[in-house]
Write a structure and sequence with these properties.
By secondary structure, the chain is an all-alpha fold. The protein contains four helices and no strands.
Protein backbone atom coordinates (compact mmCIF):
# COMPACT_ATOMS: atom_id res chain seq x y z
CA UNK A 1 0.00 0.00 0.00
CA UNK A 2 1.55 3.25 -1.13
CA UNK A 3 -0.02 6.39 0.33
CA UNK A 4 1.39 8.35 -2.61
CA UNK A 5 -0.49 6.12 -5.07
CA UNK A 6 -2.62 8.31 -7.31
CA UNK A 7 -4.56 5.43 -8.88
CA UNK A 8 -8.10 6.10 -7.70
CA UNK A 9 -9.44 2.60 -8.45
CA UNK A 10 -8.65 1.68 -4.85
CA UNK A 11 -9.66 3.88 -1.94
CA UNK A 12 -6.43 3.89 0.06
CA UNK A 13 -8.09 5.55 3.06
CA UNK A 14 -10.76 2.83 3.21
CA UNK A 15 -8.11 0.14 2.81
CA UNK A 16 -6.01 1.65 5.59
CA UNK A 17 -9.07 1.77 7.83
CA UNK A 18 -9.66 -1.94 7.21
CA UNK A 19 -6.12 -3.08 7.95
CA UNK A 20 -5.36 -0.58 10.68
CA UNK A 21 -2.36 1.62 11.14
CA UNK A 22 -0.30 -0.66 13.37
CA UNK A 23 1.53 -2.29 10.45
CA UNK A 24 5.21 -1.77 9.84
CA UNK A 25 6.68 -1.01 6.45
CA UNK A 26 8.31 -3.90 4.60
CA UNK A 27 12.05 -4.06 5.09
CA UNK A 28 13.95 -6.17 2.61
CA UNK A 29 16.18 -8.83 4.17
CA UNK A 30 19.89 -8.13 4.32
CA UNK A 31 22.41 -10.17 2.37
CA UNK A 32 23.42 -11.85 5.62
CA UNK A 33 19.80 -12.79 6.37
CA UNK A 34 19.38 -14.25 2.88
CA UNK A 35 22.53 -16.36 3.30
CA UNK A 36 21.35 -17.54 6.73
CA UNK A 37 17.97 -18.47 5.26
CA UNK A 38 19.63 -20.43 2.44
CA UNK A 39 21.91 -22.20 4.94
CA UNK A 40 18.88 -23.16 7.03
CA UNK A 41 17.06 -24.47 3.94
CA UNK A 42 20.01 -26.65 2.89
CA UNK A 43 20.47 -27.94 6.45
CA UNK A 44 16.74 -28.76 6.59
CA UNK A 45 17.10 -30.77 3.35
CA UNK A 46 20.19 -32.50 4.73
CA UNK A 47 18.42 -33.32 8.00
CA UNK A 48 15.51 -34.81 6.09
CA UNK A 49 17.91 -37.04 4.15
CA UNK A 50 19.54 -38.08 7.44
CA UNK A 51 16.14 -38.99 8.88
CA UNK A 52 15.30 -41.09 5.82
CA UNK A 53 18.66 -42.81 6.06
CA UNK A 54 18.20 -43.46 9.77
CA UNK A 55 14.98 -45.34 9.03
CA UNK A 56 17.03 -47.77 6.99
CA UNK A 57 20.18 -48.20 9.04
CA UNK A 58 18.90 -47.77 12.59
CA UNK A 59 16.95 -51.01 12.34
CA UNK A 60 19.28 -53.57 13.95
CA UNK A 61 17.95 -56.42 11.82
CA UNK A 62 18.49 -54.53 8.55
CA UNK A 63 21.93 -53.39 9.68
CA UNK A 64 22.98 -56.91 10.69
CA UNK A 65 21.74 -58.28 7.36
CA UNK A 66 24.02 -55.93 5.43
CA UNK A 67 27.49 -56.94 4.38
CA UNK A 68 30.34 -55.02 5.99
CA UNK A 69 30.93 -53.41 2.59
CA UNK A 70 27.31 -52.19 2.48
CA UNK A 71 27.51 -50.98 6.09
CA UNK A 72 30.63 -49.01 5.15
CA UNK A 73 28.80 -47.41 2.18
CA UNK A 74 26.02 -46.23 4.51
CA UNK A 75 28.55 -44.96 7.06
CA UNK A 76 30.39 -42.98 4.38
CA UNK A 77 27.08 -41.64 3.04
CA UNK A 78 25.99 -40.50 6.50
CA UNK A 79 29.30 -38.73 7.10
CA UNK A 80 29.07 -37.05 3.68
CA UNK A 81 25.62 -35.72 4.63
CA UNK A 82 26.98 -34.42 7.93
CA UNK A 83 29.83 -32.71 6.03
CA UNK A 84 27.53 -30.86 3.58
CA UNK A 85 27.88 -27.51 5.46
CA UNK A 86 31.68 -27.76 5.17
CA UNK A 87 31.60 -28.02 1.38
CA UNK A 88 33.21 -25.24 -0.59
CA UNK A 89 30.47 -22.98 -1.93
CA UNK A 90 27.95 -23.88 0.80
CA UNK A 91 25.06 -22.96 0.82
CA UNK A 92 24.82 -21.84 -2.81
CA UNK A 93 26.56 -24.85 -4.33
CA UNK A 94 25.98 -28.25 -2.74
CA UNK A 95 26.99 -31.63 -4.08
CA UNK A 96 24.65 -34.13 -2.50
CA UNK A 97 26.12 -37.57 -1.85
CA UNK A 98 24.53 -40.50 -3.67
CA UNK A 99 22.39 -42.68 -1.44
CA UNK A 100 23.61 -46.28 -1.37
CA UNK A 101 21.43 -49.11 -2.61
CA UNK A 102 19.67 -51.01 0.14
Amino acid sequence: LDTADTDMTIDNDALLALIGDDKEAYVAPTAEELVAEKEEEVRRDRNYQLSVMDQTVSNPLRWAAMSSEKQNEWTVYRQALLDVPQQSGFPDTVTWPKIPDV
